[in-house]
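Example for tutorial group B:
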């Protein structure tokens, strides 16, 4: 994507476009899945510490992570195959710095093809919403437990660790939903670009700080 953006002739081959789309969907869905697993892990560790060894041993955590990676790989593959089986007849120019689903759908041949991929997008939105709801529920239970900590320093440490994760998850999910579901009447190249940067560039830049340094 950076190479295409910086090039004086910003072209991308079909295989490169498919690769961008696959890894975008794969990484996004994997992040939602793993953050959901992490939220459950923290919930059990903080709210049910005596049962942690039974519910979430190292093998259980490895199995959940592996299941998330496998599911996301298959889901991204399904999206990519479906998108590139749609005949494109409305040109070959996208007002975006990478290949994303809404931009490719604008070039689709018929409303039937559009609705087929739109159905998959709705499944993605539902999946993201379920993950977000589960994460919020887990953190609500965690915060209720943290508020019982008598030490103000302990409460501050717990909140400063958890809140940045929720902020990034909220940013990714909200901007992804806007990108997928915004009506064509309010669509514009500048708005599409801003939304795409918010969900594809900002979270990866913040993740190393939040997940590692914190």
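The residue assignment follows.
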């Amino acid at each position: 994507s950076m190479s295409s953006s910086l090039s004086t002739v910003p072209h991308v081959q079909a295989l490169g476009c498919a690769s961008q789309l696959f890894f975008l969907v794969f990484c996004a869905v994997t992040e939602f899945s793993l953050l959901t697993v992490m939220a459950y892990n923290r919930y059990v560790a903080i709210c049910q510490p005596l049962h942690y060894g039974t519910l979430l041993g190292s093998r259980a955590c490895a199995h959940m992570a592996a299941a998330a990676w496998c599911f996301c790989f298959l889901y991204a593959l399904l999206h990519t195959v479906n998108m590139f089986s749609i005949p494109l007849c409305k040109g070959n120019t996208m007002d975006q710095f990478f290949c994303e689903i809404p931009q490719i759908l604008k070039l689709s041949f018929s409303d039937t093809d559009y609705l087929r991929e739109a159905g998959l997008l709705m499944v993605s939105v539902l999946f993201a919403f379920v993950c977000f709801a589960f994460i919020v529920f887990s953190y609500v239970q965690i915060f209720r437990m943290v508020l019982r900590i008598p030490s103000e320093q302990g409460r501050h440490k717990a909140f400063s660790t958890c809140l940045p994760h929720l902020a990034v998850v909220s940013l990714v999910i909200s901007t992804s939903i806007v990108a997928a579901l915004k009506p064509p009447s309010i669509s514009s190249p500048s708005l599409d670009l801003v939304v795409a940067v918010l969900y594809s560039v900002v979270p990866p830049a913040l993740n190393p700080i939040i997940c590692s340094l914190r």
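The radius of gyration is 20 Å. Compare this with the pattern of hydrophobic and polar residues in the output above.
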